[in-house]
């Protein structure tokens, strides 16, 4: 399972969180590498107290002992002796070296004349021992209790939430504001891919989002203009061709030879149907229909009832028991019904009967099957039947029909309607590869 967020907002917030954690880790590593254990202010105070005690220790012995006794308290102890309480080189560290260097610099002592030892008892307390050689050869031994630095977890428990949570909240709100127009654009593009009409999107957000939104609005405007221009062009061609076709039919009626007259009239009728169906195919009526939610099973039942009323053998079957009775789906019902009707017409025309079924697929998609009992189609010819005006069998019935199937537009119109819903239409042979037992049209619709 991938833990990295998939959304841009989640990724940006995740990157920021990783950056903050890395910054704290780097700071922590510096602190741990540094080795500092005494609070910096307390360390300076310890150095000042030790230097003052050493200066008092340089007085005559009686005065020195009296002065050191006077400054002794519960947190500090100063004693003069012949030997140092700390063995030379017994303990080293950042704090010890820093204290020794400061004492040498301020008192003018040699490195061998200063010894420092630190023993930590808890997170906040420890014992600091300093031994310094006086000019008369004695040793001033001091014992102090400095304030220790906090353990690394204690400041992190405060600094991490305080520095991270407010930043994450502000960034999250800001990122949501930035991504709002991008989400609107993605939603609009998805609707356009399903063939819906979408008004111009408001241009808002940062400059990059505004540029993308403006480009999308311009693209949609040009696409709409192209479709309208194509439809008007084909409508004009249809109008211009209708007059000479009608004129030729009137002249064909005056031909004396009945057989020739019938052939001419049939050819002219086919030309008229082809022109009208071409315009209908180019107009793409689905774009003018509003999208609404319907019950897909009810829509299929309506298709079946329309076919049964024409005396055709069409049934709606269930692929498995226990399937839900209702399948709500948001679509343009007239367009979808037209596509399914075209497939059923082809199944009945070339396969004697049609069997419809609907099921749910992976990812929540919907699948509609239209099966027939015909001879099927050669595998290498399956992609060809979706092309306009392609008819694989020249002997098939060419009588005009409202779906345009007789002129080779039925499957092209069906696929156009399905793809306008964001789905796809595929044909496959049922049965064995060598001996197919019918053709199956599979409609896959996204939810």
UniProtKB/TrEMBL annotation:
EC number(s) per entry: 2.7.13.3
Domain HAMP: from-to ranges: 176-228
Cellular compartments annotated: Cell inner membrane
Record field: catalytic activity: ATP + protein L-histidine = ADP + protein N-phospho-L-histidine
Pfam assignment, any one: HATPase_c
Location of the Histidine kinase domain: 236-447
Family annotation (Gene3D superfamilies): 1.10.287.130, HAMP domain in histidine kinase, Histidine kinase-like ATPase, C-terminal domain
Keyword Endoplasmic reticulum: no
Record has Nucleotidyltransferase as a keyword: no
Gene Ontology terms for molecular function: ATP binding
Enzyme type, top EC level: transferase
Segments crossing the lipid bilayer: 158-175
Keywords, comma-separated and alphabetical: ATP-binding, Cell inner membrane, Cell membrane, Kinase, Membrane, Nucleotide-binding, Phosphoprotein, Transferase, Transmembrane, Transmembrane helix, Two-component regulatory system
Coiled coil (residue ranges): none
Membrane topology summary: Multi-pass membrane protein
Major location category of this protein: membrane
InterPro entries: 2C_sensor_his_kinase, HAMP_dom, HATPase_C_sf, HATPase_dom, His_kinase_dom, HisK_dim/P_dom, HisK_dim/P_sf, Sig_transdc_His_kin-like_C
Name of the protein described by the UniProt record: histidine kinase
Organism this protein belongs to: Herbaspirillum chlorophenolicum
